[in-house]
Amino acid sequence: MTRAILIAACLVALIVPTFAATYPVAGRWGESTSSDKGAIDCDNKRVIAFNGETRTDSKGGVPAYRNKTIEPNGSSRWRVVDMFTTGQISNGLMSYTLSQPDPDHLVLAMEKGGTLRLQRCK
Fold first, then answer.
1. Model pTM?
2. Is residue 114 within a helix (H) or strand (E), and if so which, with residue range?
3. Residue 102: left (phi > 0), alpha (psi -120 to 50), or beta?
4. Rounded to whole angstroms, how far apart are CA atoms 75 and 116?
5. Span 18-120 CATH architecture
């Protein structure tokens, strides 16, 4: 009986899809070092777009990411791990800290690759 329950539990774990976490921010954000309030014109800028559990990057090395985990790391700060696949890399991982200092700005502090400062797009 115990063996049957264990086998059934393992089968359920394999069948049930894993769901990624939703990003704590949404919308389009353009690369900007400005501290001005409000949205900016993002024409001709690198744009990061957060939509549910996916994130796209208009000028990065990888065009699309899917969130794997998000863990709160203080007030308006999160530790994020994203997954990506390219022609050469399958199921790659990218780790960074996402912070939102105010409603119009985001900061992505990449574990490898420096810091990316963003401002909300119009």
1. 0.80
2. none
3. beta
4. 19
5. Beta Barrel (2.40)
The per-residue pLDDT for 72 is 96
Residue ranges of domains in the chain? 18-120
Pairwise CA distance, residues 119 & 122, whole Å: 10
Average pLDDT by consecutive 10-residue portion of the chain (122 residues)?
A: 48 46 96 97 97 94 92 96 92 96 97 94 97
- Cα 25 to Cα 48: distance, rounded to the nearest angstrom: 11
Nearest Cα neighbor of 121 from 37, 36, 47 is 47
Secondary structure (H, E, C), 27-66: EEEEECCCCCCCCECCCCCCEEEEECCEEEECCCCCCEEE
The per-residue pLDDT for 21 is 85
Yes or no: say if 22 and 52 are a contact pair by the CB < 8 Å rule.
yes
Question: Which residues lie below 8 Å from residue 34, measured CB to CB, with a gap of 6+?
Answer: 40, 119
pLDDT of residue 13: 42
